[in-house]
Amino acid sequence: MLLMLVMAISLSGITENLQSPNKNFRLDFSVNSAGEPVYSLIYKDKTIIKPSKLGLELKNDPSLLTGFNIQKVETSTFDETWKPVWGEVSEIRSNYNELLVILEQKAEERTIKIRFRLFNDGLGFRYEFDKQPRLNYFKIANEMTQFALTGDHKTFWIPGDYDTNEYFYATTKLSEVDAGKVDGNGIGTHGYFAKNGIQTPLLMKTAEGIYISIFEAALVDYSTMQLLIDQTNFVLTSTLVPDAVGTKAYMQTPQHTPWRTVIVSDNAAELLESKTILNLNEPSKIADPSFIHPQKFIGIWWGMHVPNIMSWNYSHSPNIKLKDTDWSSLVPLPQHGAKTENVKRYIDFAAKNGFAGVLVEGWNVGWEDWAGNWKEDVFDFITPYPDFDVKAIHEYAVSKGVKIIMHHETSASVTNYERRIDKAIEFMKANGYDAVKTGYVGWIIPRGEKHDGQWMVNHYIRVAEKLAENRIMLDAHEPVRPTGLHRTYPNWMACEAARGNEFNAWSVGNPPEHETILPFTRLMGGPMDYTPGIFEIKMNYYDAKNTNQVHTTLAKQLALYITMYSPLQMAADLPENYEKRMDAFQFIKDVAVDWDDTKYLEAEPGDYITIARKAKGTSDWFVGAITDENARIAIVPFSFLDANQWYIATIYGDAATADWKENPMSYQIQKVLVNSKTILKQKLAPGGGAAISLKKAVKEEMKGLKKI
Ligand code: NOJ
Ligand code: CA
Fold it and tell me: What value, to the nearest 5°, has the Cα angle with vertex 375 and ends 373 and 377?
C-alpha cells in the first residue's frame, strides 16, 4: 500500500515533521540560515538526536554541505508484510512513514535528495543523487552525517578499523573511548585510525535507560560507515573507509548512499526484535530460492584451531610456488586434516546424526606458503592435495546423503580470487558442492584496498550474485559486517565479521559477556557464523601447558544455538568430543535452524539474553538463556505455548557447581512437563546458560514426569 501526498514549497527556515505510524517517534527536518540540512529525532517526547547536520564533502568539487534550500517535500506511507526465504519469523511487517526532501544548492546548480523513513522502532535515511548536468561523476572525500547525542551515554564499542571487527567489546562512556589503547588480542590484521574512532553497529544506553543503535542498511557500492566521537559535545560524525588513494567513494548519478539508521527502544529485548535493517533492504533478487537450505553442519575445522590435532597444510614445504610445485613428491603430514579417510569419518558422523553438511578446510594446495607472505597467488581453489580424493569423497557423500561444504580461503588476495572464481564454481558444480565458506584473512590485494572499502563491498556482493546464479549458498568469513543484504541475496546466509568462538582456541579468547553483546551489535545486520557447540572447553585437554579456554560453560554453548541466530549453524567441536557426551549432543541434533516465530523474553546487553523460537512448520519450541560472568536466574514464562496443552521440556542446564572457569563442563539434563502457565526459574552458572527443547506431550510420555 502506498499513499502519496505531495507538497511543493520552497521556503527555508520551515521545519518539516514526520511521525512514525505508532507516533512514538518524531523527526524534524529543516535547513538553517547557512543552508545546512539539519534533522533531529524525538522518541516518546525525549530527544534522542539533537539538531544534527547532514551533508558530504567532495574531492575536487564544491561540497554538498551548505547553501541549500528546500525545493520540495513529499510524504508517503508504506505498509506491507513479506515472507523471508528463511529467518527468525515467517512474516515481516514493513510499516513506515516517509519524508523525501529535495534540496537545491542554487549557487552550484545542483540538487540532492534526503529520504527519511520513520518506522515504529526507529529511523532510516539516505542521500540520493539524481542524474543532472552539474552532478554526474563525483568522488566523496567524506560523508559528514552527524548524530548529536544528548549526553555521555554508556557505549558498547570496538575500535574504528578499516579491516577487521574481530575485537571484543569495551563498555565505557563515550568520553572514555580510546581506540588507541585496544589490543587486537589475536587479530592478525588490525589497526585503529583515530583514538575517538569506533565502528557500527554501535549500541548505547542513556542514563534514563533508553537503548540506541546507530548503524546502516543496504551497504552497496559505497564504503562502510564508522564514527568519530566529539568527546566533549557527544556528537558522532560519520567517517567512511578510504581506498588505496584516500577516496571514500566513487559515485555516478543516479546513485544513493546506504541507509543510516537510528533504532531506539526503552526495552532492550525489543531492540533485538527490530526488522528495520531488513525492511530497508531491497526484496530478494533470487527468483527461485529452492536451492537455499538452512542447515546444521560439522567440519574438519576445530581440529586446526585447537592445539596438536590437525593441520590445513599437507606437508612441511615452505617456499613453494603454486604453479610449479610437484605436490605428489611432497611428504604428507600425519595430522593433515582433509585426508580422504578423515573426511569419510566426518561424513559418517554427519549422516548418523542428521547433519546436512561437512565443511572441509585445507583440502586444496597452497597452505604451506601463505602465512606472512603477502603474495598474490596463494591458492587456485581447484587443485586438491594428493590425499584428498575429490571423486571418492563426492561419491561417498552422495551415498550417505551428506554434502561437502567448499572452503575458499582467498588469503585476501581478491584479484586472484576474482580471476579464478568461475573455474572454482565449475569445480564445485562438477563435484556436488552447493555451499561455500569464503575467507579473507590478511591485508587485501590489490594492496592498499581495505576489507570495508567500496571496492571490497562490491566484491562480496559480486561473489554472492555469482554464487546465486549458480545456485550455491555462501558463508563469508572476514567480510564487511552485514547490513541486511541477506534479504536481497538470501543465498548469502551467514557471515563471521566479528570475533567468533575460534578466538577461544588460540588467544585470550572472548570474555563471558561477549555473546550477550553481539546480538545487540554485529547481529543487528544479519546472521553470524559464530561456530557454537564446543564441549571440550579447556585447551589443556589437547596440550597440558595450554591455558586457553572457551569462556563459557558447556550448557551455554548449547544455548548459543538459540541466542546467536544463524540459518547455518556449525556443531563446531570434534566428533569424538560429542561421542563422549551424546546426551548433551542430543540438543544440537534436535535444534532447528529456521523459525516461524521468535520471542525475545529478557535481555540486557553485556549481562543476559533469553530467547524462545518456534521451529519452522512444527509445534516445537526451543529456548536459549545465557548470562555473562555472573550467575543469574533466567525467568522463562512459557506463555507462548499453546494453551491447554502439556509440553515435555528437556532442560540442558548448568550443574549446581558449574562455573565457566573452574568447572565448565558440568551440566545436568532434566525432563519435566510444562504448560503455557508455567514460569520457569532456571539457574545459570557464572558464564553459563541453559537450552530447552519443548515438544507437545502425548499421554504415554507424561508418566513419571514432574509437572512444573
Ligand atoms: C579464519 C576463519 O575465521 C576460520 O574459520 C578459518 O578456519 C581460517 N580463517 C582459515 O581460513
Ligand atoms: Ca575469522
Answer: 130
Identify the residue whose cell numbers are 545436568: 668
Q: What is the pLDDT of residue 324?
A: 81
Taking the C-alpha atoms of residue 21 and residue 11, their distance in angstroms, rounded to an integer, is 26
The predicted-structure confidence for 48-104, as pLDDT tens digits, reads as follows 999 999 999 999 999 999 999 999 999 999 999 999 999 999 999 999 999 999 999
* C-alpha of residue 625 to centroid of ligand 1, in Å: 28
Residue 412 Cα to ligand 1 midpoint, Å, equals 12
Tallying the residues shown for the chain, one arrives at: 708
Give residue 501 CA to ligand 2 midpoint distance, Å.
Answer: 9
DSSP state of 659: B
Distance from Cα 615 to the centre of ligand 1, integer Å: 30
Catalytic residue among 368, 478, 502, 536: 502
Residues 6+ apart with CB under 8 A from 166: 184, 186, 187, 190, 478, 498, 499, 500, 503
Closest ligand by atom to 531 CA: 1
Residue 364, all three cell numbers: 586444496
- The sign one gets for the Cα dihedral 690, 696, 698, 699 is positive
Q: Secondary structure of 183-214 in the HEC alphabet?
A: CCCCCCCCCECCCCEECCCEEEECCCCCEEEE
If one residue of 477, 481, 499 were mutated to test the ligand 1 pocket, choosing by the most ligand atoms within 8 A of its CB, it would be 477
CA–CA separation, 506 vs 459, rounded Å? 29
Return d(Cα 439, Cα 170) in angstroms, integer: 26
Distance CA 177, CA 152 (A): 11
Q: Which residues of the chain have pLDDT under 70?
A: 1-13
Angle (CA) 109 113 114, round 5°: 145
Which residues neighbour 312 within 8 Å (Cβ) at sequence distance 6 or greater? 304, 337, 338, 361, 362, 367
Write out 275-344 in H/E/C secondary structure: CHHHHCCCCCCCCCHHHCCCEEEEEECHHHHCCCCCECCCCCCCCCCCCCCCHHHCCCCCCECCCHHHHH
| CA–CA dist 223, 240 (Å, integer) | 6
Strand 197-198 to 146-148 pairing:
unpaired
Is there a catalytic annotation at residue 502? yes
pLDDT of residue 9: 44
Question: What one-letter code names the amino acid at 221?
Answer: D
User: Does the C-beta of 187 come closer than 6 Å to ligand 1?
Assistant: no
Residue position matching grid coordinates 545465557: 626
233's torsion region: left (phi>0), alpha (psi -120 to 50) or beta?
alpha
Q: What average pLDDT does the structure give for the chain?
A: 97
Residue 439: CB within 6 Å of ligand 1?
yes
pLDDT the model gives residue 1: 45
Q: How far apart are CA 135 and CA 158, in angstroms?
A: 36
Say if ligand 1 is within 6 A of residue 502 CB: yes
Q: Give, for 648, the enclosing helix (H) or strand (E).
A: strand 647-654
Q: Which residues contact residue 592 at a Cβ distance below 8 angstroms, ignoring those fewer than 6 apart?
A: 613, 615, 616, 618, 620, 622
Strands 706-707 vs 667-674: parallel, antiparallel or unpaired: parallel
pTM above the 0.85 mark? yes
- In the chain the domains, ranked by start, together with CATH numbers, are 2-279 (2.70.98.10), 295-497 (3.20.20.70)
**Omega of the bond prior to 201 within 30 degrees of 0, cis?**
yes
CA distance linking residue 493 with residue 485, whole number of Å = 10
Dihedral (Cα; 286, 115, 455, 489), 10-degree rounding: -10
Q: What pLDDT is stored for residue 12 in this prediction?
A: 53
Evaluate whether 217 touches 281 at the Cβ level (below 8 Å): yes
